[in-house]
Amino acid sequence: MQDLRFSGIDSIIILLAYAVIMVIIGWLAGRGENIGKSVSKYYLAGRNLGIITLFFTLYATQYSGNTIIGYAPQAYREGFSWIQSVPMLTIVIGVYLLYAPRLYTIAKKAKFITPTDWVRYRFQSKQVTILAIILMLWGIGNFFLEQIVAIGTAVSGLTGGTIPYGVAVIGFIIVMLTYEWLGGMKAVATTDVLQGSILLIGVIVMLIGGITLSSGGATSISENIAAIDQERIGVPDLFTNINWISMIVLAGFGAALYPQAIQRIYSTKSERTFKKSLARLAWMPPITVGVVFILGIIAIQLYPGLSVTESEEIIGLLANDIADLNLFYYWMMIIFFGAIVGAIVSTADSVLLSFSSIISHDVYGKYINSSASEKRKIKVGKLTGIVLVGLILWIAWNPPGTLYQIFVLKLEFLIQLVPVFILGLYWKRLSSGPVFWGMLIGAIVAAGMTIAGYETVFGIHGGLYGLTINIIICVVGSLMIPMNQEKRKKAEILTAIKTKTNNDLST
Amino acid sequence: MKEPIRKPWIWVIMGLLIIFNAPWYLPEGSIEPMIFGIPYWALISLLLSLLLSAYLSWVCLTQWNVIEEEEANNEEEGD
């Protein structure tokens, strides 16, 4: 028996088949649609995503490869307290409910393309818009970096180096760009259906395999863990509990405001479709991260005493042992690897599409060449996508110390958009000046704390301190600025959902 | 029209489900009793998590109806 079960030709065949299928789906999605000539067709699939597609695209976009590869080691190291990963991803639906019903309605009426469209429409301020663009692009760049590194590590690790890191990264980038260019958001969302469903099946088969391996049942697992390390099974200390709640809040707000997630709100066919998809999505955290959590716990018993670096390989170790059970499990695990790669690619493609849309529509179309045709804007988006890929590749290969540290700020920056998206939708007094300063100072606080090495203080994340200051500035500042009748009326029209007024995008 | 943000009780219940998800109110380090081999506190957290999923799913389906009828009418008219 080999050490690495997947280093042979089988995994290469599966990955190649996977790549070919994704390109074919992209081609089919874009065929005859003329998607290269309409920004709403290219970036939002013509605002026509149905329940199944929307559900899977939200699922595959929110749950990246890291949800599987990274969360299991976390459960291994932290023990039972990592059960927090389940509500952490469920709460995203709750945050959607705070703002998405109204944003969807306004977006449909005003025909938004990018998340920035809302910011420009509501605050009508260049300063606020540009700062929001910077924060979003930063978040997106960070996401993309993570996914690229993950693809390389996953594929080279899982094939035992048969496919080297660099080949994996470049190969999958070419595949991703190809299907994205062929079919835009429709291709991205349709490939998500494939990627999401394989991921779901893979996770469940892995759970069954893991339980078979650990044959002793839950009682013996818990008893063994209690014998190995009490801390990983007992009620956590106060610090961990505070950190637990802080994580839920940070991830909930941050993930619900991912630019690529906001664009899915715009792509929805109807409110009915949207709410049905979200209602189903609310059950995915227990089914996905809940299962991954159990796998991490099983691993405590199966592979005791791993160091931090060694524990990162848990999913690989488990998959190897499960594949050894019999031929069925062997092939299921090969497909599961395809699913992990798919989960990474499905997050990366959405992020890249969102990046291209912001650059082409908001930066190029609004500030550089406002008379550009839609076809030209899409072309600019595609080309700058390549530039981003190049830049991120460079960073992925040579992480430049502090810059890398700053770059890791993702959720911390994205949650600074909370006042813009949530408060701005409901509170008419919210003015652009305080919003700008709140967002800027909030981001500086979050970044400053991270760079200074204080990612959390009293278990609470720097991003949340930044957000608190941000909200205080927004609220106090807005209350201090007198509001005339005209301004109030304008804000009322811009945030209304029942008016028949034609709220066309105005700059 | 039903817009979730207009109903404070939705957010109070959600907040409670989150705050009690972390077992800060239980004695630190305690494990027993084990139920189905799972420490009691983890089971409480898990149940609260499932309750959160069920609750949010229910809120989506029943407490959110902003322009659904308008859209349905438009569709009938062939808009």
From TrEMBL, chain A:
The keyword Transmembrane helix applies. It holds the Pfam family SSF. Keywords: Cell membrane, Ion transport, Membrane, Sodium, Sodium transport, Symport, Transmembrane, Transmembrane helix, Transport. Its main location: membrane. Coiled coil: none annotated. The chain crosses the membrane at residues 12-30, 42-60, 80-99, 128-151, 163-182, 194-213, 242-261, 281-303, 328-359, 380-397, 403-427, 434-454, 460-481. PROSITE patterns: NA_SOLUT_SYMP_3. It is a multi-pass membrane protein. One of its GO terms (molecular function) is symporter activity. It catalyses: L-proline(in) + Na(+)(in) = L-proline(out) + Na(+)(out). GO terms for cellular component: plasma membrane. It is found in: Cell membrane. One of its GO terms (biological process) is sodium ion transport. InterPro entries: Na/Glc_symporter_sf, Na/solute_symporter, Sodium:Solute_Symporter. Belongs to the sodium:solute symporter (SSF) (TC 2.A.21) family. This is Sodium:solute symporter family protein.
